[in-house]
Design brief:
The protein contains 4 helices and 5 strands. It has about 130 residues and is an alpha+beta fold. It has a single domain, classed as 2-Layer Sandwich (Nonspecific Lipid-transfer Protein, Chain A), CATH 3.30.1050.10. Helix 2 runs parallel beside helix 3 and helix 2 packs across helix 4. The radius of gyration is 14 Å and the shape is globular. The chain starts with a helix and ends with a helix.
Length: about 130
């Protein structure tokens, strides 16, 4: 319920052109929820992905790492792990920006950086959008 409320609050703020933020702990939890609950269950065996790995890195206000996950969507399942290891792409930024990217709410005030294979990151974002419908 907390994530749904945060998403709708951000939608409203964006529609009104107002600034917004999401608490770092809530944002970190929201990234995990989007990956494990939505992406991990909603697509079932119909993931239909390339197998490219994307690392998600979110930093807190102090610059320390709050989220560090690796996601590898395959044809029939999604593999998850901690951030260590090789990745085709890295999506990084402040944890609220990473949260907004994962939930399809990215905006100019909360940018993320994509390094490496941009197609891998775009594929993950498209899979998340499909799972969150």
């Amino acid at each position: 319920m907390a994530q749904e409320t945060a998403v709708h609050r951000v939608d409203l703020a964006q529609a009104l052109g107002r600034p917004w933020t999401v608490d770092a702990d809530l944002a970190a939890d929201g990234v995990d929820e989007a990956l494990n609950l939505w992406l991990g269950t909603r697509l079932g065996e119909r993931v239909e992905a390339s197998g490219r790995t994307t690392r998600l890195l979110g930093s807190g206000a102090d610059g320390g790492t709050v989220v560090d996950r690796r996601v590898r969507p395959l044809a029939e399942m999604v593999e998850y792990g901690d951030g260590e290891g090789p990745a085709d792409a890295v999506v990084s930024g402040p944890v609220d920006a990473l949260w907004s990217w994962v939930w399809g709410r990215a905006d100019d005030e909360h940018p993320v950086q994509v390094e490496g294979d941009e197609v891998a990151a775009l594929e993950l974002r498209a899979l998340l959008a499909r799972a969150q419908q």
